[in-house]
Amino acid sequence: MDTVTHAISPAELAVSVGTSTAPLLIDVRKAEAFAESEHFLPGSIRWDYHAGAPMPSQLANAKRAVAYCVKGAEVGINGAARLAQANIDAAYLAGGLRDWQAAGFVAVKKRLDLGVDGERVSRWVTRARPKIDRIACPWLIRRFIDPRAEFFYVPTNEVFDFAKANNAVAYDIPGAPLEHDGERCSFDSFIAAFELKSPALNRVADIVRAADTDTLDRSHEAAGLLAISLGFSQMIKDDHAMLSAMLPVYDALYEWAKSVENKSVERHNWKPESIGR
């Protein structure tokens, strides 16, 4: 079977990483190289095809995928070819993770203590009835840290017992590994813990922090996020449905933040041009 693959540069891939339209990223590094590295690409799924591991189930519905290795050479190219054999629009990352990091694009630090090693599915639990931080953090996890992550919302007094019994990591509750730290909220703690160095994410963090800590004067956009979050909370009583409904809001917020950083933000002109008669 003929396979059709192509190379994608770090700069080209960086445009979509972290967004809802990003291709599925597949980490095909050899086991030794993967183990030696402390980082992986945002939103990537591990596939050790060298060891005969089955193709990740997420690829069943994937239309586009990008395979990456250390240097963007034979390992990544062969990985992309295997994806193409499954009728997936496949590319390989030119220069691999090495060139990606050299260019300064965001990468995710492995945190085995938090259940994030780039291979297994992570599990997270927090208080029920989420509004802002407890929605923003799962969005960040889903888009950057672990696209397969599982989330749980339970009564406040059950969070730590649930975490212990279900091999989950508690967050956004005092005493959790990831919580508020002074004026900084849990969203900030996630960014720091996983070393997500991104100006656009920092801009989103400013908005989330101001909305979550009732310091709306610190961000022009925070009042809007707060109003939308509280409105959805009134409309939706199921916590997981609330999360699903709010994910596109954070997708849009991140897209806007990227456009601001790139100085390509679209302005709204509320005055229509006059039409000559």
Order of helices and strands: EHEHEEEHEHEEHEHEHHHH
Low-confidence stretches: none
The spatial strand order of the largest sheet comes to 1-6-5-2-4
Largest sheet: 5 strands, parallel
> In total, how many domains does the architecture comprise?
2
Radius of gyration: 20 Å
**Total strands:** 10
Beta strand %:
5-15%
Shape: globular
> What's the overall average pLDDT, rounded?
94
Q: Structural class of the helix and strand makeup? A: alpha/beta
Overall description:
The chain is α/β, with parallel strands linked by helices and 277 residues long. It folds into two domains: 5-105, Rhodanese-like domain (Oxidized Rhodanese, domain 1); 115-261, no CATH class. Helices cover 39% and strands 13% of the residues. It has helices spanning 10-14, 31-36, 74-85, 96-102, 133-145, 159-165, 186-193, 199-212, 222-235, 239-261, and strands at residues 5-8, 24-27, 39-40, 44-46, 64-68, 89-93, 108-109, 123-127, 150-154, 169-170. A five-stranded parallel sheet has the order 1-6-5-2-4. Strands 9-8-10 form a three-stranded parallel sheet, with helices on one face. It has a two-stranded antiparallel ribbon with strand order 3-7. Helix 5 (133-145) runs parallel beside helix 7 (186-193), helix 5 crosses helix 10 and helix 8 (199-212) crosses helix 9. It is globular and about 50 Å long. The termini are far apart.
